[in-house]
Every structure is written in C-alpha cells, then in structure tokens.
Amino acid sequence: MLRLHSPFTQNIISGLCVAFTAGIYVALNILGAGGGRPDSQAVTSIVNSCLCACWVVTSFVASIVMQYLGPGITTSLGVLGYAVYVGSLWYFDQVGGRGFPIFAGCLNGIGAGFLFVVSGYIQLCYPEENEKGKYVVTAMSLQAFGSIVGSSIALGIDIKDTGSSAGVPAPVYITFIVLMMLMSLLGLLLVSPSKVRRDDGSPLIEVEPMKFKETVKANIDAIKDWKLLLMFPAFFPAEAFLVYSGSANAFHNNLRTRCLLGFVALVIQVPCGFALQALLDHKSWRRRSRAFAGLAFVGIPLMAAWIWEIIRVRGYDRHNPPKVTMDWTDDGFAPICVLFIMNWVASSLWQYLVVYWLGALSNDPLKAANYSGIWRAVLAAGEAIIFGADSTLIPFEREAGALFALYATGILIFAYLAYFHIQDTLYFTEDRVVVPNHIIEEIGEEKAT
Fold this sequence. Notes:
mainly alpha
C-alpha cells in the first residue's frame, strides 16, 4: 500500500507532475517544436531557445529555492510555468504574435528549472542503492506516459485529417492546460525530506539547512568536481534530440502522421525503460557490470539510429519544403516509422543513463541536489543552442551529425567512468552513514562496515 510519506510515493507524485507538464511539452515538440506550423518553425525555435536559456540559469539556483520553499511549493510553481507556456502556443497558433510566446517561454524556463531539480533530487536521494534504477525508470516512464496521453489526445482529434500539416486544434491546448493546473495542486503533496520515512520507519539521510551563501558555495564546489565536468558532453544532447525530431518531423510528415509516430514511439519507450531497469538493478551483478550492460543496451541502437538518420536526410532542402507532406498511408512510410521509433527510444533512454551515472557517483544528498541542477542546466543549454541553430534552418544532415558526435563522446565518457570510478557501494553501516570513497580505499571495506 502506498503511503504519502514513503520515498517511492513521493517519487511517483513528482513523476506525475513532470508527466503532465514536461511530458506534454515533449508531445507538442513531436507535433513540430510547439504548434506544429511548418511556416512558423523558426519562431517557435526562437521561443524555445529563450525557454532553455532561462532554464540554464534557473537550474543552477533551483536547489536553493527548493531548500527554502520545500519540494511541494517549488514543484507547484514550476508546473504553472508550463501552463502559461501552452497557453502562449495556443495564442501563437491563432494570432501569430511573438511577444507573449517569448515571455511565456522565459517563464516556463524558470518553471522547468524548479520542476526538474526537485524530481532529480528525489530520484538521486530517496532510493536505497539497489533501487536507483527503479526510481529513475519510474520517473522517466511517467514522463513518457504523460507524453503518450498528450499524443493520444492529438491523434484522436486529427486521425481523420489526411491533409493537415499545421495548427494544433484548440481542444488539444485546452485539455493540456487543465491537466497542468491539476498537477500544480498535486505537487503540493510533496513533503519536506525530513518528513519522508522508509517502510521500516527510518528517515532519509538528513541535511541540515544551510545559509544562502553556503548553498551557493556548495553549488560552485559541485561544478569543480572533475567527474561531473567530464560528463558535460553526455548531458548536452540529452534533450536536444527533441528539437531535431520535432523539426524534421514537421518538415517531412503531416500532422496526423506526426501524432502517430510520437504515440507509437512513446508507447514502446515505456517497456524498453523497464528492460533497462532490469539491467541497472540486476541483483546478482556487480554495479560496474550493470552499468556496462545498460550502456550497451542504449548505446548500440543509439549509434545505429543516428547514422541511419544522417544518411536519410542528406537530400532534404530546408529552404524548399515538400508541397505534400507524408501520410502514414504513403509508400515509404514503414522505414521512416522504424527509424523514428528506434531513434526516439534510444535517445530517450539516454537520460535514464545520465541520472543513473550521477546516482552511482555519490550518495551525498547535498551533492545530489547540486548535481541535479547542474546536469539539467547543461541539458537545457544544449537544447537552447540546438533550438537556436535550428531556427537558422541549418541542414538536417549537419544537425544530426552534431548530435551523433555528442552521443558518441558521451558513450566513451560513460564507459571510462564505469570502468574506473563506479563502485559497488558508496555507503556502509546500518545507520546509512555515507563513507567517502577515499576513506574506504584507505581503511578497507570491512573496517568501513
């Protein structure tokens, strides 16, 4: 039975808030980087670039906000930013004015920083070591579920519209805004970490409240961690693929086909995520072996998909879009569908790996909060830069090539960290006292225990 104050219930609540905010944002991007109007692609890319730029800044300070306001209020405020953003896309589709969407994009960037720092903190700090894959996959799968709901709503409305390539209907926007307002209320059920209790009644590892200057210093110290800095190239493309997928999808396919591709890919992502969890939490394997198994599970299809994507888009001219976009009844749709699903699922699972690697490097709650903010800031920076580049109508081949290079670099970095720096455990003793790795190495595992 789920208890409100249990760590896993708190993870589910946070995951649902992300599901029907960021998950819906993903669904909108699948439709075409926002409103899905090919003639407005550059404008929506600029809006999203502003969104991500604000997200970068907010992610660095959101852990401070969470400490003072608590996870509940911080999450609720973050959700409201998404609701305003969706409303601005509706306005943009109907009127075409730029001012409101740009303002709302900035506001949503602030909200995204709040929302994801809380979610990342819960995923990294609340589980036991042998549950970290479970918490990450549950949260990410809930986000995918939100995107599935968003895509299914759009698909249901547009399923008979074979000629449409632009404009998301008003009922879609209205439904999304209502869902987000409900999530803003649900977020208030997130309690202070000090009130969370495990099933045996024991508390989480508690961190004493820090003064503002101390919290800022802790953020700066986290950035100095060379292992975290080394992972930046892996963080950078983690959500940038959404920009590429939405843009290429809007260029090549009509609206109902975009809805179908997004819906099917998201549905397949969920069981693939749980298959990844089975590898990352495999009880009879050492953590290093689990890490390599998870990396192979994601990395091999990821590299294959992006190579295929580069080859596919070589002949696309972004300055001369097709007069008739592809429908799912057209010849040649099958390979497009397979590639989209393969690319989407592997790129989505990349985020699961990032959070797992962060959790495998430290159990320190303060570090986890700072890591969560920093990795989301770098992710947002990557998305902002790709949105900006995409707004200039850079050739799809170059955009896909850049993302391939970043993912390939990230795989090498993860492999290095898994081999040399991921340990079987980072804490010993029944009291959940964190024992630093260098102390364990000096005195031995038995004495540390």
